[in-house]
Design a protein that fits this description.
- Strands 1, 2, 3, 4, 5, 6, 7 and 8 form an eight-stranded antiparallel sheet that branches.
- β1 and β2 (38-50) form a beta hairpin.
- This protein is an alpha+beta fold.
- The chain is built from four helices and eight strands.
- It has helices at residues 12-15, 19-25, 114-120, 134-140; strands at 30-35, 38-50, 78-83, 87-94, 101-112, 160-163, 173-176, 191-194.
- The chain is globular.
- It comes from Streptomyces toxytricini.
């Protein structure tokens, strides 16, 4: 029996496109996280695009390092990084190999496995907050650096994959600057979200971190 249309795995060709094309097209897609305790599924509601070495806001702006190597492809893989010594963030690599572009999955709605996500997100006031923001999302889905470089197109045995879900009409897509990005990349309108969705995280402008004296 063939899979339901909304349960069809996204092929590598979906990711092998320009980052600003892929990013809004990820809204409404289903991210599947397979764990030993069971699967968790998330409908993506908010993302941010990072355009590699041409983008001052990107980790790849100054070239390839051991930390950002997964960003350089091939497309359809995960790039997971640790930030502020506290949180993980999940990115989906896209565009041609060696171009180093990716999309940060900022927020989503847990549609399967909410009971597993709640165990990891004890501070969430309700299910809408389980994955409302990239750090919360990574915590809810048990994402850490061990998933860096995971092939999202490797089939049902992969710990991470993307399903077709339901794409979002263009008039339902909000667009604006990325959260917390400063410097020359602050004004880039590379953040996309589903308008009116309660799981979308609030926008916050960049605030320079003060050095302790």
């Amino acid at each position: 029996m063939s899979a339901r249309p909304d349960r069809t795995p996204l092929p590598r060709s979906f990711f092998d496109r320009p980052v600003l094309t892929v990013a809004p097209d990820l809204l409404g897609r289903i991210l599947v996280r397979r764990t030993e305790e069971g699967p968790i599924e998330l409908r993506i509601t908010e993302v941010e695009a990072y355009a590699g070495e041409s983008d001052p806001g990107s980790h790849a702006y100054r070239g390839r390092t051991e930390r950002n190597a997964s960003m350089f492809g091939p497309p359809g893989h995960a790039y997971v990084y640790f930030i502020y010594g506290m949180w993980f963030s999940l990115n989906l690599v896209c565009g041609p190999k060696d171009h180093a572009s990716g999309v940060l999955v900022r927020a989503g709605e847990i549609t399967v496995g909410a009971e597993l996500a709640r165990k990891r997100r004890l501070s969430a006031k309700n299910d809408k907050e389980l994955a409302k923001g990239p750090a919360r999302l990574a915590t809810a889905l048990a994402v850490d650096r061990s998933l860096d470089g995971t092939d999202l197109c490797a089939g049902p045995d992969s710990p991470l994959s993307l399903l077709t879900g339901a794409s979002v009409a263009s008039h339902q897509v909000g667009n604006g600057p990325r959260t917390g990005v400063g410097g020359a990349g602050a004004a880039h309108p590379y953040r996309y979200w589903i308008d009116g969705d309660p799981t979308v995280s609030p926008y916050r402008a960049h605030v320079p971190r003060r050095r302790s004296t």
